[in-house]
Amino acid sequence: MKILNMGNKRLASEYAAIEIIKQVTEHPQTTLGLATGDTMLEVYPDLIDLINLNQTDLSEVHTFNLDEYVGLGEGDKDSYHTYMHENLFNHNSSWGKEHIHVPNGKAEDISREIKDYEAQLEAEGPVDIQLLGIGENGHIGFNEPGASFESKTRVVDLTESTINANKVHFERTEDMPTQAISMGLGSIMSAKRIILLAFGDKKANAIQQLIEGKVSEELPASILHQHDNVEILVDDTIYQQLDWSKSQG
Ligand code: GLP
Fold first, then answer.
1. Which of 14, 116, 215, 229 could form a disulfide with 193 if both were Cys (CB 3.0 to 4.6 A apart)?
2. Ligand 1 pocket, 67 CB below 6 A?
3. Catalytically annotated residues
4. For residue 201, is it within any domain?
């Protein structure tokens, strides 16, 4: 696992976007693992610029998003489906619509939706580059502390910490769902390469715990120590707070 101080969100976002454009240019049949949240808000505009500048054909690119709130989906302002379309997919017409996968939180049969999602991921994977953010409690996707390292796509209960962190994005905070569909830790680990981005004071504690090196289901992101191609991109705000004397390597 490499920790890189990128100085700021700007450079980290550009780096992530450049790695993705390189991948899809070299391998048109790429499968991308995509994430949402504030962390990714500068990655996607950079990626759109690079796609447009290079007139990249995305028709054979497959994408899988990490998660979606139960009860939300297409047409809902606060859904990750809407986030992804507004921030990325609507900005280029060459995305093959049938290759874009965001879990459907409004599916009538959620257990079927989960099974199908994991099956599609297995069929169209492995993911070549997986983007990740991290929760203040160390979650990745919506895999909250205690999630099994073997977990696959499923419905999860959100913790109070996550509800508090994310409800600010909802016009009426009481509308924030308490459950989500999330790709599992096992599913995330099958990606060939993982780029995790983290910015700002609020994420410093999670990154500190991560560098301490203890692999435990209490810190879901710690599973990444078991992956051999992970980059953790942080800003200087986080980097300056890290206590390397507690690091195991
Ligand atoms: C959210 C999402 C994660 C995201 C993380 C960080 O709850 N489910 O996929 O990476 O938590 O969010 P943010 O980037 O808004 O801080």
1. 229
2. yes
3. 67, 137, 139, 144
4. yes
Q: Could you tell me what percent of the chain has a pLDDT over 70?
A: 100
- Domain of residue 235, CATH code: 3.40.50.1360
**Cα–ligand 1 centroid distance for 162 (angstroms):** 9
How many separate domains does the chain show?
1
Taking the centre of ligand 1 as the mean of its atom positions, its distance from the CA of residue 51, in whole angstroms, is: 24
In a domain, 90, yes or no: yes
What range defines the domain where residue 72 resides?
2-242
8: number of CA atoms within 13 Å, CB side?
3
| DSSP-based three-state secondary structure for 196 | strand
- 97-116 pLDDT per residue, tens: 999 999 999 999 999 999 99
Residue 246 CA to residue 99 CA, distance in Å, equals: 43
Cis, bond preceding 126 (omega within 30 deg of 0): yes
Q: What is the DSSP string of 41-86?
A: TTHHHHHHHHHHHHT---TT-EEEESEEETT--TT-TTSHHHHHHH
Output the DSSP codes for 206-228: HHHHHHH----TTSGGGGGGG-S
Confidence of residue 246 (pLDDT cuts 50, 70, 90): very high
Q: Say if residue 249's pLDDT is above 70.
A: no
Q: Is the pTM of this model over 0.90?
A: yes
Bridge-based pairing of strands 230-234 and 194-198 is parallel
Smallest CA separation from ligand 1 atom 9, residue: 141
